[in-house]
Design brief:
heterodimer; A: mainly alpha; Butyryl-CoA Dehydrogenase, subunit A, domain 3; 7 helices; globular; B: 4 helices
């Protein structure tokens, strides 16, 4: 992809990619860097859009986030994630949700965030994570039940 | 509430295809319906993020050299240094008589004068 194509890709997907990365790696600065790196990886890549553009972008973001988490000791969940939540009740649940998400396995958390923050379909999450759509369905369900167990 | 009911509703809330009969059964299950409401609440909470994008993401930055490229550059630099060091290092083997076309320079010259140092018939 040339620079112009990547710039367009960046504008289309930077927002959900950043929000996904911020919740997944739990580090705003790292999420900003990883968001930039996600799209810079597309420069010179031989990828051509075939209806899986979003899945491809999130696959790169997810792999970078995984590498980051492996390379860095995980910082404790900070309140910064929810400084900008909406109404007070939403903010309260958002805080609790983040705390509960932090207890999930990376596999389950990433699938949940790809769905709820990224807005990806099961088929796209499957591409991004190297899973089958059935496995995505199962993991999402497992993650939701685990969250429900903690939050209700 | 059964696991199957909540799994069907989990997929349903995501807009994925579900079996209508299974969906009907799940929706008849009060506990599964409560789970469905919770799933929607979790989604709202997950998306309750109104923070504007950071300024650093207003535009895509210029790419910096990749680590792989830097590694190749470093390896090439080492090779050049080794080559230069090899040229500057003394090479005594090049003066080895066995490998030279010209004879070595004598370190001492002995001269014999006929009639002085030796006589015919001695």
């Amino acid at each position: 992809m040339n620079r112009e194509q990547v710039d367009q890709l960046f504008v289309r997907h930077r927002d959900p990619v950043f929000r996904f990365l911020r919740r997944f790696v739990r580090d705003r600065g790292a999420a900003e860097d990883l968001t930039q790196e996600t799209f810079l990886r597309a420069l010179g890549a031989s990828y051509t859009a075939n209806g899986q553009e979003r899945a491809w972008v999130f696959q790169v973001a997810r792999n970078l986030a995984r590498d980051h988490l492996r390379a860095h000791a995980r910082a404790p969940l900070t309140a910064e994630l929810n400084e900008h939540a909406g109404s007070s009740s939403d903010a309260s649940l958002a805080l609790e949700l983040d705390s509960a998400l932090a207890t999930l396995a990376d596999d389950d958390r990433e699938v949940f965030l790809l769905k709820e923050i990224g807005g990806l379909a099961y088929s796209e999450i499957a591409v991004a994570c190297g899973l089958t759509p059935d496995a995505v369905r199962s993991r999402l369900h497992r993650a939701r039940l685990a969250l429900r167990k903690q939050l209700t | 509430m059964t696991i199957i009911h909540t799994e069907v509703l989990s997929a349903f809330v995501d807009g994925e295809p579900v079996d209508p009969a299974q969906l009907a059964a799940a929706l008849h299950d009060p506990d599964a319906r409560a789970a469905l409401i919770d799933f929607v609440r979790f989604r709202d909470a997950a998306r309750a993020d109104t923070e504007a994008l950071p300024a650093s993401l207003e535009r895509l930055r210029q790419p910096t050299p990749q680590r792989r490229v830097l590694r190749w550059v470093a390896a090439a630099a080492v090779l050049v240094l080794m080559f230069v060091a090899g040229l500057l290092t003394p090479q005594p083997w090049r003066q080895n008589p066995a490998s030279s076309d010209t004879p070595p320079q004598p370190t001492r010259i002995e001269r014999f004068e006929p009639g002085v140092d030796w006589h015919p018939g001695d």
